Amino acid sequence: MPEGNFYERVYHWVRQIPPGQVTTYGAIAALAGNPMAPRAVGYALRVLPENSDVPWQRVVNKAGKVSPRGVDPGLAVFRQRKLLEREGVAFDADDCIDFKRFAWAGPAG
DNA sequence: GAGATGACGGGCT
DNA sequence: AAGCCCGCCATCT
User: Fold this and answer.
1) Strand C: which bases are under 7 Å from protein Cβ?
2) What's the CATH number where A22 sits?
3) Mean per-residue pLDDT for A7-34?
4) Is any atom of nucleic acid chain B found less than 7 Å from the CB of residue A45?
5) pLDDT tens-digit profile of A61-77?
6) How is A46-65 classified by DSSP, letter by letter?
């Protein structure tokens, strides 16, 4: 039993993201029932272990970039980017992901 | 119970 | 176009 149902919802929707596709914190927040709680989504993903079954790496910010976090933001971004590239997600020279090509359309399709 | 935190987003400058 | 400030939320201390 999770402490809050919100976390469970976030994890549920993030698990729906197929490999090679990405979505935003805002989109997950909306799916979880709180469109104005993208920060809470980040908080939920923050507590996940690296070996979690939740593909947290497929969630990026609205700018199409990986969000820096932790004591070593550069390393964290590097590792997430590597995971995504391994799935086929491409980054441009500005470290941005092209949503036109890799954005998750959502549960509806 | 109150104050502070953080992997965001929108609006304004 | 890029950067700064404010507001939003759930959670933690």
Assistant:
1) 7-12
2) 1.10.10.10
3) 97
4) yes
5) 999 999 999 999 999 99
6) HTS-TT-SS-GGGEE-TTSS
